[in-house]
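The instructor's notes for this session suggest beginning with a concrete chain rather than abstract definitions. Hand out the sequence below and ask the class to guess, before any prediction is shown, which regions might be ordered.
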Amino acid sequence: MILTGAVVNALAVFIGSAVGLLLKKGLPKRMGESIMKGLSLCVIYIGISGAFEGENVLIAIVSMAVGTVIGEFLDLNARMERLGEWIQNKFQSKNSQTSVAEAFVTSSLLFCTGAMTIVGSLQSGLSLDHSTLIAKSLIDGIAAVVLASSLGFGVFFAGVLCLVYEGGLALCAQFIEPFLTAAVINEMTCVGSLLIMGVAINMLFKNKICVMNSIPAVFMPILLCRFM
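After discussion, reveal the predicted structure:
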């Protein structure tokens, strides 16, 4: 069962999101806003911690520059917004005060960016060892409760992305494992953590940075570490 770890992680996000949505109904608006601000500080901490995994600042700079150019060319942020609007029209009340797209992007970056995602998926695919992804599931499930209680229904769909992303890595592990050295994973974690800090800034100041357009930067170290 190569996909066991990815399935468990996705289920943890689904269950955490459901619990968070139930809690959201009983939370006063002011309390929800306070939780969001406190969570933003935690997200900044996560981003800063991960950013120190990188060992070559030049790779981070070039990755961000080149990745953002690619993301802007593809206009990933607008595409994600359109997907979020479609989901919201299908599944959520028009009177909702939350943005499905914002919740989806914010939670997806937290759940799918980091060393545990990459290493855990490779372990699942190469040796059927799901321990790392199962440990990550506990963390993501708790985070999903907090995120869903503050950001709303869009967090649920991040579980789908977890399943696709981690499952895809696990299935392709034998082919991509030679390219994902320890140095590459560290640099990917660094760049991803910078984006996580961008997410925290958006949570505090209401979308000042189009983080989604910089997503390709996370994968740039796979190429750059071969030459730098």
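Then share the key points. The longest helix spans residues 182-205. The chain has a mean pLDDT of 84.
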